[in-house]
């Protein structure tokens, strides 16, 4: 997401390094780079022109602070203007009204409307504690109803078994009556995908819109289509009247033109972004946070929110209790891996940490690291309950059995157990440090009680070094764990 734009911006800012102040002469090259980066990201030309002019005015104006490094000041100005471009403040759904609140999902074929309807139901249940009914109203693609019902069953959300032989407006009325009967707070209505030039289909959508009392009307726009997504949103807004936009497939879009243009061109606020294929991969849209991600300033608030959702307090307390006893089990390790998985991919997590965007580009593909995690999980799944609680039980014959059950070699099982042993030492050592023992083997600080320092060769195996032929290196030339 925004990888190309972030890299281009980083290159453009290099022109200000080592300068004592921002002047029209030294800012020209930077602005040229910014303009090129935005155009290559498929941002609307008028948007680019006005944005660059605003940044230039701010950079050369009285608001520039003395004593602040020009590059840092320029990045701050860029952040503020990017946030304004995308809407300044987050605009959520209007849920402070009597039920049943209708949310109408519209858009083109293949944009991801049905999937978004399921994601939104999960989001509203988890975030807003709302009781939702899903209403399939796509009578052009019967499979859409089946897909939505499948999502509903998987999520544990109620759905309306609509009669697709009826007109969309009649389906919606019947669905809302059912929602009212079931005392639902929100009804999410999935409509048929439309070509914006199809007047008959658009008129059906207008009829549905008129039949609803103050609905939320969200267009799902494919972020990968860039300016076409913006044009589609503009037509739908003129015909139907939108209250918000949703950008799907943001995880696949490295440019970001739609996100940076749609609010400016249509006046419609972006309310959600879809950042993955899983049902949980939906985020409320925050312009300021996204601007920070683009400029490699991180997004700590979103990371904290994700962590609060992902971390199981009981599991965390159980692991802490084990560590206090000098114990760290494979089950504890599994729970840590599951927490990381709930947070998202390694790349998405690292991008939320300030300054890590550039480092991530140097590190390259993190796919091999994630594959290693999957291999470890297969090995762990081949262990017995007792072996996961006490790794020291795993002797030679057990290792052969685990390898056979996991479809891996005995050598790979040995490597995992060795690395887990090193991690156990480190975790127990950290707990000792927190209890006042100090870091191990650091001059001036006492050794951690019960902590045995791993030999240097083992440390190299744990953190990398001696990579195999063809294996990709990380940022520091080490192999992946």
Walk me through the structure.
By secondary structure, the chain is α/β, with parallel strands linked by helices. The protein has three domains: 3-86, SRP54, nucleotide-binding domain (Four Helix Bundle (Hemerythrin (Met), subunit A)); 101-286, P-loop containing nucleotide triphosphate hydrolases (Rossmann fold); 309-463, Orthogonal Bundle (434 Repressor (Amino-terminal Domain)), CATH 1.10.260.30. 55% of the residues lie in helices and 9% in strands. The protein has an eight-stranded mixed β-sheet, sandwiched between helices. The longest helix has 28 residues, at 410-437. The chain is flat, with a radius of gyration of 27 Å. The model is unreliable at 437-481 (pLDDT under 50).
Feature tags:
single chain; Four Helix Bundle (Hemerythrin (Met), subunit A); Rossmann fold; 434 Repressor (Amino-terminal Domain); eight-stranded mixed β-sheet
Summarize the topology.
Elements: H1 3-13, H2 24-40, H3 45-60, H4 70-86, E1 101-107, H5 113-127, E2 132-137, H6 142-155, E3 158-159, H7 168-181, E4 186-191, H8 199-211, E5 216-222, H9 227-239, E6 244-248, H10 257-266, E7 270-274, E8 282-284, H11 287-294, H12 300-310, H13 313-324, H14 330-343, H15 346-351, H16 356-363, H17 367-381, H18 385-389, H19 396-406, H20 410-437, H21 456-463
Helix pairs in contact: 1-2, 2-3, 3-4, 4-11, 5-6, 7-8, 9-10, 12-14, 17-19, 19-20
Q: What is the second-level CATH architecture of the largest domain? A: 3-Layer(aba) Sandwich
Give the strand tally: 8
Order of strands side by side in the largest beta sheet?
3-2-4-1-5-6-7-8
Low-confidence stretches: 437-481
Structural class: alpha/beta
Question: Judging from the principal axes of the Cα atoms, what is the shape?
Answer: flat
CATH overall fold name of the largest domain: Rossmann fold
Tally of discrete structural domains: 3
What do the pLDDT scores average to? Answer: 78
Find the CATH superfamily of the largest domain.
P-loop containing nucleotide triphosphate hydrolases
Largest sheet, strands/sense/barrel: 8 strands, mixed
